[in-house]
Amino acid sequence: MDLSDAKSIIEAVLFAADKPVSVEQFMMLVELDYNTVERLILELQQEYDTEKRSFQITEIANGFQMCTRSEYALWIKKFYTTEVSSRLSMSSLEALAIVAYKQPATRAEIEEIRGVSSDSVIHTLLERNLISIIGRKDAPGRPLMYGTTTEFLIHFGLKDLSELPSIDEIDKMLGTSNEEMREELRKVLG
Question: What is the C-alpha to C-alpha distance for residues 185 and 153, in angstroms, rounded to an integer?
């Protein structure tokens, strides 16, 4: 195989892979020896550095993976925060807020606060991996309890749950002194 073709194949696989790819995996793919594959990966790394590309090849977990450079983390975080919050319905955001502030929360507790059935929004939040089942409540019927996930923190740009805004902070963001709204917030935030 031509080395230029092999290098392009390595680059394409790194671009498409969602986990680190080992040199051995590349060796089988392009049918080249260890040192040649390693040299081609190094050449790609140097090209990205020279061209000041927004991504790089990183050696991680006994393999190589393409990832964005750390200086672009803020922009990526903004993109994903905006993308997720804009794609969630108001019902989903309500249920997610209840889980985030009340966790662990059961479906019945979510529905009591929202005042409507929440089966479909809970299903949506589970599908998007923003909440997960974290156990069963020690109560009649042993209902499932839900909590937020690491994905929730990532999507909303939070280090941990302590960074969730307080009632006063939410009030300021909404610019409201509406007592009815504050009462609803108190129900959610407890």
Answer: 21
